[in-house]
Write a structure and sequence with these properties.
By secondary structure, this protein is mostly helical. Helices cover 73% and strands 0% of the residues. It is built from 15 helices and no strands. α3 packs antiparallel against α4 and α5 runs parallel beside α7. It starts with 7 loop residues before the first helix and ends with a helix.
């Protein structure tokens, strides 16, 4: 019998359709309504709820709301441990938030579940490079513990049932098809961002802006916004720099680079009050940040 228009199943399918159309906010709302109905009825299976949470997490990731993505993936994994899609999405969100050790753990856990997932291999390689640069040769000693995946979970996810691949599987969670497009888009966004980073090192800020802009069309990531803001500062496009930092702070309200670069831009725009407010917010997170302290002294003299 067909599900009624307002049933959880119908809401989930409507959410899937919105996701396919790129309407991530409306899709997330539909998944939320389906979750609320299931929970109110008190008969929701853990698997149904986990799928909906993972779907909503995909919407958050697409919209750059990485902290919300982490929360939904964590809830999904509490219901159905070692789900490959929540692990990969949470890893991508942690990576965008520059929480590289947690991203590394999730990518490694995903490989225990299914060693053929190329996105997880690529993620491990990126996180290894980032952690080596950040923490030096002893970076592994600072990692959180990597969970051991039981054989039962490996079997469940490496050989999914026909039902798991059917109507209950959201477009963003399918092992192939739409899921691959999402992963491919994020990988392309990462490559474009890296190309932008290399151009910055060469001093070609105008061309780097183009790369970052293309990357942001595919994946709204905090670090890409702050990188483009740095280029705008170098190009003396201070209004654009401030706007990019504001977008970054919507994704990560305490991001030090975004606060510092917006303060720099606002100083050049002669909005000293707002610039000082950003520096003071930054110093709550990093009280000994010498660059911020120096800028605050300059602002107080302005």
């Amino acid at each position: 019998m067909a599900a009624s228009p307002g049933s959880p199943g119908a809401l989930r399918r409507a959410g899937n359709e919105e996701f396919r159309r790129g309407q991530y906010g409306p899709a997330a709302e539909l998944y939320s309504r389906a979750l609320a109905q299931l929970e109110a009825a008190g008969d929701a299976s853990a698997e149904e709820r986990s799928v909906l949470l993972a779907n909503r997490a995909a919407c958050h990731l697409k919209d750059g709301a990485c902290s919300l993505c982490v929360a939904d993936c964590t809830s999904a994994l509490e219901l159905v441990p070692f789900g490959i899609k929540p692990l990969l999405r949470r890893a991508a969100a942690y990576e965008a938030l520059e929480r590289y050790s947690l991203a590394y753990v999730d990518y490694k856990t995903a490989l225990q579940v299914d060693c053929s997932v190329q996105a997880a291999h690529d993620g491990v390689n990126r996180m290894t490079k980032a952690l080596l640069e950040k923490d030096g040769v002893n970076w592994r000693q600072k990692l959180p513990p990597i969970p051991t995946v039981p054989v039962s979970a490996q079997t469940r996810w490496s050989a999914p049932s026909a039902q798991a691949l059917g109507a209950n599987t959201p477009p963003a969670a399918a092992p192939r098809g739409e899921g691959d497009k999402t992963a491919a888009g994020m990988e392309r966004a990462r490559v474009l961002k890296e190309e932008g980073n290399e151009l910055v090192k060469k001093g070609n800020h105008k061309k780097a802006v183009e790369k970052y802009t293309e990357s942001l069309k595919l994946n709204k990531e905090c670090a890409t916004y702050t990188n483009r803001a740095l280029c705008y500062l170098s190009l003396k496009q201070y209004k654009e720099a401030a706007q990019d930092c504001t977008e970054a702070l919507k994704l990560d309200p305490k991001n030090v680079k975004a606060l510092y670069r917006r303060a720099q831009a606002l100083k050049e725009l002669k909005d000293y009050k707002s610039s000082i407010a950003d520096i003071k917010s930054l110093l709550k997170t990093e009280p000994k940040n010498t660059a911020a302290l120096r800028l605050l002294q300059e602002l107080n003299r302005a």
